[in-house]
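Predict structure. Chain length: 400.
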Amino acid sequence: MTEPTGPLKGLRVVDLTRVLAGPTCTQMLGDLGAEVIKIERPEAGDDTRGFAPPYVPRTKESAYFVGVNRNKQSVTVDIAKPEGQAIVHRLLETADILVENFKVGALAKYGLGWEQLKEKYPGLIYCSITGFGQTGPYAPRPGYDALIQAMGGVMSLTGEIEGEPQKVGIPVADLFAGLYGTIGVLAALRHKQATGQGQQIDIGMLDTHVAWLANQGMNYLATGENPPRLGNQHPNIVPYQVFPTADGYMVLSIGNDPTFERFCRNFGLEHLLADERYATNAARVGNRALVTETLTAVTKTRPTREWIEKLEALKIGCGPINTLKDVFADPHVVARNMVVEMPHASGETVQVIANPVKLSATPPDYRSAAPVLGQHTEGVLSGLGYSAEEIAAMRRSGIV
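Prediction complete.
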């Protein structure tokens, strides 16, 4: 692993997370230069090591695991054993941050809960990511992405008008919780810099899900009515949706009245501008079905590529509906270096999705691909002062 260069260089993170929400947080910290020591169960490791197929080509590593565990060192420790807990405590003596996503109270059984650590390590930033947070009636419950999407309301807003509620196609509840966790850690670091004090960060997946209901949540608070499912249509802007073309589909995003006027004048629809049902965005929202029907008859007359060329020339928002093959081949995505190749412990080179944060002075760095299970156990334990004989004895006992 090469030396970090990011803005968090010099910080040590003890990573007691697994699956997605927690590892998303700790990977972001690692990308920004922190040293991340990932504690995994001996022999089993992070659950996502078994979330396969698919595997990364020519390796035995699951694509899922490799996607959210770069820039981390894997150390196998059985924290259920006192000797394993002692290892974590040695790490905490020089650690700045601990991130965990165990169920509420689970780490207290091992002497590693916030209440047990805060006096011994007063500068420790302790980030807890759970399904429902540390307090409230649901706190003891486990959290799962689809469950949170359902309980958090987004499924009631997603799907076709006459269809069933739908979850988002990627685990957004997990991802947002991890990213909010990162924001909390960065804020806590600023507080520690000013005061020397650590603190606990309490991230509940349901809380973060409610927070990103955004305009739809505000639509409910303003009206008291649950916004209806609209398929691919926008709740507050029309036309801003998927339209059929002569050979497929495209997204047309007309965000204001001057843009709608420009669209109409260039595609033979000038007469609509004198019709009050089309004149303003508010009127178009009120006549959504009519506007959609009128424009569909027009969009179906040209193929997608022609529409994209003409609309882009007019500075009207539009885009194709890309498959992932299209996405990763897109010249803009390529130019933005959104895929990175990294050497892996297997001897192979693996492709991973890059960090999207572009910092001009201290950009994210890519020091090492996701580790194989226990790859760094001996090196880290040696650095903590354990002898080769002690490490070998702990291996025989299943402690590491």
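Summary: Residues 12-212+332-396 form a domain with the Rossmann fold fold (CATH 3.40.50.10540).
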